[in-house]
Amino acid sequence: MAIDLYYTPGSAPCRLVLLVAAALNVPLQLQPTDLGAGEHLTPDFLKINPQHTVPTIVDDGFSLWESRAISRYLINKYGGENLYPQDPRTRALVDQRLDFDLGTLYPRFAQYFYPQVFGGAPVGEDLLQKLEEALQFLDTFLEGQTYAVGPDLTLADLALVATVSTIDASGISVKPYANLDRWFDLVKRTAPNYEEANGKGIEMFKAMVAQLKAKTEL
């Protein structure tokens, strides 16, 4: 029985789950969830996830949310040790990159960009500088590395590329960061089924941003 994934294609956390499933060759029963229409607030959805967030999965009656928890669950269930290595030091570095993405990179992007899109706020130069600092941190992490943690693609790369591709799609170029730019191109070329799992969602994200900007500029 395929796992149900409640998701929004433009969402970076949802695209992380799609990337992990693609890397593991795990079929998902996609359940598009329209947040704007309040589909995540229906009684049926709240029974599945009282926090009413996406992504959420349901696997034979077992429900789980938060993208990294879902990703680790899929890896643990379907044998993706290459994505989340057992070696303590390697796994610690994967976890560090995941925590950096969750606690620093994505929040700094969200704090800078979403108030402009959703609320018509002016560009916050101080917030942009904080985001650029985070991108510089990531560029430094990637110095001398093929992937985010050593020579092989891991869960860290899939999480980071979901965020970095979102940042890039918002119009903030990663070209000034040589290591990051090289890595971004590599992951786009080598992550399994990248275009289907992430590229299509990025195009939907761009369309959503364009629509919202048009409304705030009226």
UniProtKB/TrEMBL annotation:
EC assignment: the record states 2.5.1.18
InterPro entries reported for this sequence: Glutathione-S-Trfase_C-like, Glutathione-S-Trfase_C_sf, Glutathione_S-Trfase, Glutathione_S-Trfase_N, GST_C, Thioredoxin-like_sf
What does the UniProt keyword field contain?
Answer: Transferase
**Ranges for the GST C-terminal domain?**
87-208
Coiled-coil portions: none
Q: Which residues form the GST N-terminal domain?
A: 1-82
Q: Which GO terms describe its biological process?
A: glutathione metabolic process
Which GO molecular function entries does the Swiss-Prot or TrEMBL record give?
glutathione transferase activity
Q: How does it assemble?
A: Homodimer.
Q: Could you tell me what this protein is called?
A: Glutathione S-transferase delta 3
Species, as recorded: Heortia vitessoides
Please spell out the taxonomic lineage of the organism that makes this protein. Eukaryota, Metazoa, Ecdysozoa, Arthropoda, Hexapoda
